[in-house]
User: Fold these one by one.
Assistant:
Number 1:
Amino acid sequence: MIPLEWFLCLSAILFVIGAVGVLTKRNAIIVLMCVELMLNAANINFVAFSSYTGGLTGQVFAVFAIAIAAAEVAVGLAIVMTLYKARDTVNVDEVKLLRW
Amino acid sequence: MFAEYAWLIPIFPLIAFVIVGFLGNKLFKKAEGGAPIAIIMAAISCVLSLLVAYETLTTGEVYKASLEWMVVDGFTFNMGIYIDNLTALMLIVVSFIATLVVIYSVGYMHSEGEKKRRYYAIISLFIGVMLGLVLASNYLQMFIFWELVGLCSYLLIGFWNTKPSAASAAKKAFLVTRIGDIMLMLGLIIFFVGFKGNLDFDYIFNNVDLFTGGDSLLTLGTFLIFGGAIGKSAQFPLHDWLPDAMEGPTTVSALIHAATMVKAGVYLVARSYPVLIETPDTLIIIAAVGGFTALFAATMALNNTNIKRVLAYSTISQLGYMFLALGASGYLFAVSGDPNVGYMAGMSHLMNHAFFKALLFLSAGAVIHAVHTEDMMRMGGLSKKLKITSAVMLLGCISIAGIPPFSGFWSKDEILATVFETGAYNTGFYLLYAFGIIAAFITAFYMFRLWFLTFSGKPRDQEIYDHAHEAPKVMWIPLVILAVLAVGSGLAGILLGMEGTIEPVAYLSTMHIASGIDMIVDMFQHPLTYVSIIVAVLGIAVAYLMYYSKTIDPARISESKVGKKLGNVLLARYGFTAGYDLFGIKVIYGISKAVDWFDRNIIDGVVKLISLICTLVGKLLRFVQNGLVQTYASIVVVGVSLVVILLLAFGGMF
């Protein structure tokens, strides 16, 4: 059996890749995809702990998280679409109207 | 049986106030601005007052009734009626003179136009609250009415409110009496604490020994209460508002500033007599202030040429006599334990003075009505034109001068006799007796100076003289009624035994009541009586020589170097007016400016500094919001990471 630590290491690596992507990438679509990476890192943790402790709660929670992630992507992509229509760009650095 | 309806007495004039004051100009345009309503209501309460007073004075029973007004923190405040012989006396004086004055006003205020309605409304309000004041059953209720009469006084002094001098006189009267009112309020607070929250006259007068807090606190309390009387009754050093109050209509001067409201102070002291006799120190102060004021105010009347001002000074002086009487009588009782006539003398002087001073003021009003000036230097020889007025005013002058058997003589002589008697226990009272005698001389002099200057000799201003005319019937009939009382009230009071009935509860009827005739015989066997008569006659004689026969030329005195200086000092009211102004402008305004500076710079400065810091910090911090979502996300990540690291390092989670 694969020890729990390996799963945790994998999810940590995935989470950090996602976080760095969110913070550094300029393309709004890639930012959205990196958010997905972070969510899935969390899902791995849920499932790993669920199998490790023997309960089903973690797996149910992961399914919920996947559903919510799908909804979030739908909304996020819609925003990116309208943004592109209005401003002709999907670069997040150029979208900074709401400031002092 | 009538006393049960006594609560109606103040109600009727108040109804008149509401009707006349609120029911429009149009309704009363044709009816003298509501005068008939005011007269009828005043007359009804006058009849009721006389019935109640008659009942109380004949049966000698004290009527008291009260309702619970409000309960605060376990303290009960009552509203009620308290009628004893003193109340009865005040009821007679107030309601009777008020009715006559309102009738007289129909003539005097005839040409005032639309303002008449305001006049009759406020004067009705005044009559109502003044009657309420004398009927009050506890100090708090009395204080409420006390303030209300002050308000009416303010409104009526400033009746001609477009005249700057009247407006400022009204303000002055209000502010100066306010000093006294604050003292009175402090005194009442001391009473409230000392008598455990009960301010009812009935309770306090029967339980003076239950005062908690010691003798010195009680003395302070009674002194502060007397402070209220000083303000309201215009005694030294708060006397200065009364001469200025003459800016109001003469009827107002007669009713409020001679016969009734200024007597409220005397009434307060007389009412508090059972408490005062426990504090002889306060009584000495009362007598000293009264005696000094009697002389002090009289001197200022010596060379004044304004007919109403002379009468105003005379009022202050006569009020001084009343305080002198109450102080001396109380002190005499406190040290000797024997009842004396001083209290009754003071109270009957209050009544007699109300009659003859109202008469004098209303006569002066008739003169002013005829000649349209208050300056006596422009009058003269008016007795040919104003026959009735000059005759009744002469009676008033004789009465105030103290010539027997006119009313002023009896009470003034008894006051002086009491003061002299008290001198046996405290030699200071001999000095006050001397003050009283000198003031009596001056009073006789200036009253007859006033009469001679106004009515005798040759007219000094022919044009004014030619236009002068006798007052209408509605004015001289009240004058004649008052003249009868001014002549006879003193003697009638003694003969009917009223002097014996008006005695304080504290004496517990140990007073030996001599019959009227005996009292008069006693008086004329006493050598001091002749001193007062001689002094009064002397005063009249000097005035006669100076202003009628012109044997002594008054100009020679007033033009001499010393005379001129002295005259200027008197006209400047010993510098009191200037002193008040100086105090008001320099000291009070100076303090105000300092306080204003402190407020603007220190208090506002702190507030402004705080707001400045907030704005600056806000200006700096707003650059954090740069609109880049990724910056915000970085901050969140860094923050959360820091929290986690700190928890791991110091939180003791592992």
Number 2:
Amino acid sequence: MRPLFLNLALALLAMVLFLVSLAVGPAELGLVEGMRGLLAGGGEAATIIMREIRLPRALLGLSIGFTLGMAGAVLQGFLRNPLAEPGIIGVSAMAAFGAVAVFYSGLAGSSLYALPAGALLGALAAVLILMALAARSGSTLTLILAGVALSSLAGALTALALNLSPNPFASYEIVFWLLGSLKDRSMEHVVLAMPLMAGGWLLVALSARAIDALSLGEEAAASLGVHMARTRFLIVAGTALGVGAATAVAGTIGFVGLVVPHLVRPLTSRMPSRLILPAGLGGAALLLAADVAARLVLAAGELNVGVLTALIGAPFFLWLVVRSRREVF
Amino acid sequence: MRKRRRKSRNGFLRSALCAAAALLLSPVHAEPPARVMSLNLCTDVLAMPLAAPGQLVSVSFLARDPALSPLHVEAETYPVNHGRAEEVFLARPDLVLTGTYTLHNTTQLLKRLDMQVAEFSFVQTLDTIPDDIRRMGALLGRERQAEAMAADFEAQLAGIEARRCARRPTALAYEQNGVAVGEGTLAHSVLAAAGFRNLAAERGISGMAPFPLELVVSERPDVIIIPSGESEGPALGARVPRHRALRALPETRIGAFVPPGTWSCGGPAVLDAVKALDALRQEIAPCGEAP
């Protein structure tokens, strides 16, 4: 499929789901009425609901989905590992732990800025650990197993930090951090996370050309003139920035970065760099769709969106493992 | 934590039973218990003002928490317990005061160890409080003081309730994570006594249940009462009642309004919550003017 056509089709899909996301909520507010409220301004209930509740939620679904899809594509290309994904290799879980450790300790008062600060540190630590491991052992399996260990450790530490909080409500928030949600987010969260995620997109985009060369192996890439240290820095920083900021405001949302690159890869020329943008757009569409479903499945209340992405992603992961065992090992 | 104390709704039956129990118990206890231990915040706030000097040997650790306990200053003068059976067993009190819902295992264990345990139900409303005061008085051998306190409570409450009029603004008690307090709760009876309509109860919520932000915005309550809770560590759930969407409602008053801890437990201090909300109601919807 022509890259331009693929990207346009996926962007259109994401836009449609963005509008659907704006139209769904407990207040009986149709798309037309909602749009009028969104554009009108003033103190009308429709305007407040659209601008302060649904718009931030849809914007976060779009940008976090984009970040996760793109991060999955980059990690799979860079690590040459079809199972790599921020959720599975522990980057999201470490980001969540970082956010929890800084926020709930009260080090920064109850300031929201504590969340991305901690999450970026956590994500950075995870990416560095995994890169070091990947450099020492080329095995697909080692990296995934290390990621599993890192995820469980970060999950346990997250639970510990929440239980140590003096606030009795903190321990209920473990579900949010482990399974993610876009419920009751506000524009404050958008302002907090969006610029950081955009920075991550930029860094990853700058590394795109080098990732193509890297698909031939590190030595071949170096002989083609790829600056390895610079590429590694761009990918580490870009992934940590994007996934860290996404996790800081939405918790751990797994499997988006795993499923989407595999779904769109057959439609591309299979060059890793050509996959990054479609994977981001597809990730945005998938997360928006999952977030709409999370609001509709239960009559009262809503599901954590990570439950839905795992329901789609975990069987897919299993299928990939079985298939890759046949092909690779 | 509040959530746990307000679960069921058969308050009338329970208060009748409590009164009967108090009548039955009082003649038996000719000798008042010399050493009493209270394991629950809600028994703490009833026992502290009633007990004779030295009679109450310890209160729960929550009694010292300024965010939860209206008597946190008084509680500093008592030793505290953490409601564990071992502590009670070592202290060997003549009477243990506790709640029917919290710490249920401890209660069973203490009864098996032949301790005298008095359980108070914490599905309280303003109507059940005078009888709870009288029952506590009977248990502690302080009937006279309790009767005076209960009568004063009833008189003050009746005085405030008499000030209500046809103008009844809507209020929403909006807690952590967007949970609203509905029918059959202490907060509901306080709102009613102060002349407010409880929006959550009118939308069919009984006990405590989630109330989506979007619906709060479209219902536009006149007042949203949010937890003050700044003394505790940070939690994300505390941000929901402070969401920007609520602050964007132009005519809605948002604040804690109720003095900390006064409506978490049904003791005499609940009157401070009623008074504070009554003052707020008179300010935003004075009775003299036409609606």
